[in-house]
Fold this protein.
Amino acid sequence: MATTKGTEYSLTLKTGDRDRPMLLEEDVFIRFYNKKQVKSHHIKIAIDELEIGQTKDFKFVIEDQKFGDPLYIELQRENKWLRHGRWLCDYVKLAKVNSDEVFMFPVNRCVWAGSTLKLKEYDTSLPQEDANSEQRRTELKKKEIFYDTYKSEKTGMIMVRHIPYGEAFSFRYKWDIETEVFKLIAKSAWLEWSTGKCETLEDIEKLYRPPLLPVPEGFYHWKSDQHFANQRLTGCNPAMIRLCTQIPENFAVDAKQLESLLNGSTIDKVINEKRLFIVNHELVKDLPCKEGVLCAPIALFFVNGEDNLMPIAIQLFQHPAPTNPVFYPTDPEYTWMMAKCYFNLADASIHEASSHLGFTHLIGEIVVIATNRCLSPSHPIFRLLAPHFLYLLAINKIGMGPLLGAHGLLSDIMTCGSTGLSEIIKRKIVGDYELQEWAAFLASQGNDDTVGEGANGIEAKGGIKGLPNDGHFKTAKEISEVVTSFIFIFSATHASVNFGQYDNYAFPPAYPGWMNGQPPQDKTALTEKDLIAKLPNKKKILKTMSFTKLLSMHDTCALGDFEVQYLFDPVSLGALDK
């Protein structure tokens, strides 16, 4: 609203909540620039208005009636005693009073004591188009220090040494998680007397306490062969199954026995019709385990006449032997079920170590490190990816120790233990030399004009397998394909391997993380009692239930509904609306 004193504005300032409390000892000053770089007067924001995670509104007037629209914002902090104090600001929104005109200045970074930060409206620009190139370089040099890396001895993966500023949990998120933990502990604490083994399936059913610990889906369908097959597609490890074009030589299936399960067809015919599929868990062959035995199974699946995927053969170890028979659905009921349980034991170990921790959390961390070290917060690719990074580094830093430690939770509830889980990560991810070359390359990028934010806006230094043109992006399509892959990992991939864990793991016969003793070595008819004897005790089951319940909680917003928004320009908002 224009007045005789100038133009009146409403200023909304949102502080970030993803950090420790900000100990400010000086005020923050804000002013604006128009397109001719004419400055407004300073607007002083008192320190008591800058609490963490707050949204505050202020009124002010730009007295110069010819000032026009604000194009830049400048945030300045005085240099007093707290030189290393930081202020995490999410955004500043400016609106003309009695008008629909709004000017957005996303900040999404720390403003340091004694520093001045100048940002354009929407703060989205390529380096070659940014007049504040020196500011970008300075920010990236700081980030190279904060996102310092090391190679984890436990997993062999590149990780951040300390949780950087702005990457910590918000107080709200921490409180929600801790509340749920305490609820689960309180709810299950009275059951701690149940430290013995389950004698019947009903003993497991008695452990559930809806709605906090409900009966999982696996409880209702665990005997079903169709459910077992569906776990390869819609379970928590859905990316292992492959089209079978040839039965491996070390898979000692009996052709006559197998063809009796193919609805009158032959092996060659169903292969040609692309109706035969295979899962081969050779990865965990000879894996060191805390206790018990982890098989390295192979299984065949067939799409029948009703278009249902069904299991038709399971071999529990890689090398054929008299003590390593191939099991079929026509075998005694509980003998076949036991084979399915031991197959799923291997599948669960690969799921938790590789599909979940390795290919989403640990690979994701490398992407977060590389993006922060290579790209300015003002870069459009940074702003596109950043919402998907929320809490990842904090989760990894806080969770890896308790999960993969020698006495950690996973070591207590999974047969392979922490040593086996770490070995799976090393075999699957560290053993993939091309992936490791890519990871090391990303995490080690510098921040000068020819690296990261190069002449093409985003460019990789040198050659790297798996990226277009040996690491040099030449078209927007190439960038789009790589960035889309990253976003898919952070969203769809993580959702598929994470949120279904309770419904699978919480009923051990459906998807066991732990099995006692030896797997079956012949076709002797087994009983339900034999199967139950292989299952973990009540205490381990309760721990598994509580752990997977926490992991399965939908505690973040849906895709596109970001907790922290980074993109405000009209093009991005239009794409988001679609």
